[in-house]
Each structure stands twice: as structure tokens, then as C-alpha cells.
Amino acid sequence: MSPLLRQHRxxxxxxxxxxxxxxxxxxxxxxxxxxALAIPLLVASALTSLQPVSGRLAAxxxxxxxxxxxxxxxxxGAVADRIRRDYRSDVxxxxxxxxxxxxxxxxxxxxxxxxxxxxxxxxxxxAIVVTLSGEDLARRAGRLAAAWREWAKVDMVQVxxxxxxxxxxxxxxxxxxxxxxxxxxxxxxxxxxxxxxxMQALSQREEIGVARLVGATExxxxxxxxxxxxxxxxxxxxxxxxxxRLALDPLNAALAxxxxxxxxxxxxxxxxxxxxxxxVVAVALLxxxxxxxxxxxxxxx
Length: 301
Description:
- The protein is α+β, with helices and mostly antiparallel strands.
- It has two domains: 3-57 and 165-298, no CATH class; 62-160, Alpha-Beta Plaits (2-Layer Sandwich).
- Helix content is 72%, strand content 8%.
- The chain contains ten helices and four strands, in the order ααβαβααβαβαααα.
- The protein has helices spanning 3-21, 23-56, 73-86, 99-107, 110-117, 137-148, 162-203, 205-213, 218-261, 273-298, and strands spanning 62-67, 91-97, 127-132, 154-159.
- The protein has a four-stranded antiparallel β-sheet with strand order 2-3-1-4.
- α7 (162-203) runs parallel beside α10 (273-298).
- The chain starts with a helix and ends with a helix.
- The model has no long low-confidence stretch (mean pLDDT 77).
């Protein structure tokens, strides 16, 4: 075995002995870091699970222009042609839904057939469905709706997919919040590991001094502390994954009832294994960097 590998094995053994020599202190630090990591991991899991749902929703909002009941097919066609001609840069598609066809489709549905069979006249208006394109859809949809409402024979303009825009805004807000939360958690982990390593270094001041007298290098002295930071944070990251996995069962049970009330299915799941592996490695590296910073400042004696 090469001298470098023997030094790393020795440093790892020293680190494990120090951890087990102070079980309560090590466990307390592990719990603090685990809870700090579990919160952003749970939020990231929710966003990852929500992404496919939002991806299946129509990204381009549809606006429905409802004509007055007394509007003729020619007047409805004129409004549709005007939208195609004057707003060609704003729309992708314009289609007309005839009032008679809409009534026939409703009567074909058994849930509405009995109620509609007693009607003597067709109460439904003609409708024009407009699909928008481009950027800043929410603002532009409001501007277009306000303009079209002023046209003759137009009764109402409805932005059918405005809720999609709200959902996308919520997801963007949550991503920004997650980034800020991750920064705060990273700072908390740095502080926890920094303080733990500092206390370890100060408690072993005499041992470090003797090691230097017999020729120990700075790398040899600091290596066990780097392992301490990396192992503590790596184990805490694994514990955070396990904690979130346990928390998902009651959360998904509650979400299932809520989703069923809207006729949908939704469940929060942990990210894929490669992402979780990267999460553990990144947290372990963060702990090692914090330990390196701490030991560099705490062993200058």
C-alpha cells in the first residue's frame, strides 16, 4: 500500500474514532444538518413532481369570444376574419364553434340530454376560439380581451387558460424561493460544520502541536478534519433523503384526496437516483470545504 493511501486510511480511522468518542455531540450535529437539508429536498421533490403536470398543460392560452345570441353566422365569421387579419402576429389559430353544433354535442352527453331536451330554442351563442402565441401571454391576453369586448355583436371574452399562466407563475416563484432557501441552508451547513471542526481542533490543540513537533505536515494534520466534514454532511444528506421519503407517505395520502376532488391524480416523488447521488456528493463536498476553511483558521498555533 502506498504511503498516501496509508495516510488517508489513518485519517479516516481517526475521524471515525472521534465521531464515536462523542456520540451525543455527533448525533446532535447530524440531526441539525439533516433537518436543514430535508426542507429544500422536500420542496425540490414537489417541484420535480409538478413539472410533468405543468408540462402537459397547454402553454398557449386559448381565448373564447362569445357572440350575442342574436348574432348571425355572417357576423360571427366577420369577427373571426377580423381577428385573423388584424392580429395575425398574436394568434396561432382561430376557429368558429357553431351554436347548433355546440348544442348537439351537449345533447350527445347523457348528463345534459334530459335537461336540454325540454328547451324549445337554442340558448347557446356562437363562439370563436383563439389560440395565442409569443411571449408575455398573460398581459397580452388581457389587452386583447379588452379590445375585442368593444366590437359589435361580441357579448363576452373569456381567457380559458389564465389559470395555466397562474400555475406557471407559481412554479417560477417556487423555483426562485427554492434557490434562496438552498443558499440559506448551505450557509447553515457551513456554519454548523465550521463550528464543529473548530471545536474539535481546539480540543486537540496539544495533540496537533505534538504532531507538528515530530514532523507532521499541514496536510496530515488537517486531513482528518476534512473527512469529518465530508462524512458528517454525507451521512446527513442520506438521512435527509430517508426522512423525506418517510414524510412523503402521509403527504401523498392527503394530496390524493385533494387531487381526486378535482378529478386528477398527483403525488410527490423523490427525484431520480442520479440527482440524489449528486445531492449527496455536493453536500459532502460542501462539508469538506467548510471543514477546510475552519481548520485553516483554527490550527494556527
